Amino acid sequence: MPFLNVRALGYALIAVCVLSTAWITKLKFEISSLNNAYASKQAEAQSCAASLSLQNAAIKSLQIKASGLNEDKIKSVSKIYIKDKGCESELRAYKMLFNSAF
Fold first, then answer.
1. pLDDT (average), residues 32-43
2. How far apart are CA 70 and CA 75, in angstroms?
3. Integer Cα distance of 10 and 19 in angstroms
4. Which residue of 42, 59, 97, 102 is 20 to 30 Å from 69, comparing CA positions?
């Protein structure tokens, strides 16, 4: 077979091996850089989660808790008895209301 050149085939095989080795090295470098980026983002996510839990705790501590006394005061304030439409009677009614509620 005159078309089968062993030397050319050997060179082609060596070239394929060199190119595949270079490609594998490049892929390993990409994997390494992606792993570093992943670790960095994971650390950022943990930091954000810690900040979020601190903020949630602060928000919970600022919530107002209603008690039975507050509900009674709210009910008593919601009932306003005014004798007539005059300013003095309205003022007297509001004063009595707030004095009784608080």
1. 96
2. 9
3. 14
4. 59
